[in-house]
Structure formats: structure tokens, C-alpha cells
Amino acid sequence: MQHIYKFPTDDTDTWTPPPMSKGHRGRYLWTDAFAVLNFITLARETANPIYLSHARTLVSTVHGILGRTRDGSTQLPGAAPSSPLEGGLRKSARKTRRGAMAMASIITTSPSGFLR
User: Fold this and answer.
1) Ramachandran angles phi, psi of 106, nearest 5°
2) Which end of the chain is more exposed for a tag (fewer CB within 10 A), N or C?
3) How far is it, in rounded angstroms, from Cα 58 to Cα 74?
4) For 2, what's the count of Cα atoms within 13 Å in the CB-facing half-sphere?
């Protein structure tokens, strides 16, 4: 995970998830969703809050790209500023959004409110 996301382990808040070689604008929903779960697990196992910060940053980055139309001009249909998740998330592939809502719920919620 460190090799892909190149995240710091100290108390810095300057980390930005690097773009991946695949996916739309460097985001690949499935990989990013599992990284969020890994960050939450690292936070729980190490008691280091930096990993929760990384999870929040990654969720925000993914939602800012895959929660918008492919050209990035607007939020997905059904979303509003007061409820941005209502539009779901696009998979980076052009074919289908099936499964995107399930992964959206994984990367935007967590047990015990870790990302709240």
C-alpha cells in the first residue's frame, strides 16, 4: 500500500493521494475503496490518527473525481450540495456503474464512525 499511495507516517497533513496509472483521472474506485479500509485498519491497530486523516483525504479525493460527471463539470444526477452522496460514484470504467453504490458506502462510512 505504501508503494502505491506513498503516504507519510508522521503527523503531516499535507498528503495528497497520487494518481494511479489506471482509472479516470488517476482514480480507480475498487483500489481506493480497499485502501480506505486499510487506512482505517491501520488507525485501529496502531492508534495513530494520521491513518484516519489519510482515509478522509482519500475519500474526499475519490468523491471529488468519481462523484462528478466524466468531464468534471457537475455532480452526478441526484446529488446536491447538501447531499453529495445521493448521486453515487462512477466506476472509472465507462461501461457500468453497477457496484459503485456499494463501494461508495464502504468508502464513506465505517464502523464506529471512524470517518465522521
Assistant:
1) -65, -45
2) C
3) 20
4) 3
Give the model's pLDDT for residue 15. 83
CA–CA distance, 110 with 91 (Å, rounded to integer): 20
Tell me whether residue 113 is in a domain: no
- Structural domain contains residue 69: yes
Within 8 A by CB and 6+ apart from 60, the residues are none
Write down the pLDDT at residue 26: 67
Q: CB of 36 within 8 A of CB of 59?
A: yes
pLDDT at residue 116, as a whole number: 47
- Please check the confidence at residue 103 and state whether its pLDDT lies above 80: no
Q: pLDDT tens-digit profile of 71-81?
A: 888 888 888 87
Residue 8 has pLDDT above 70, yes or no: yes
Q: Report if residue 88 sits inside a domain.
A: yes
Say which DSSP state 112 is in.
G
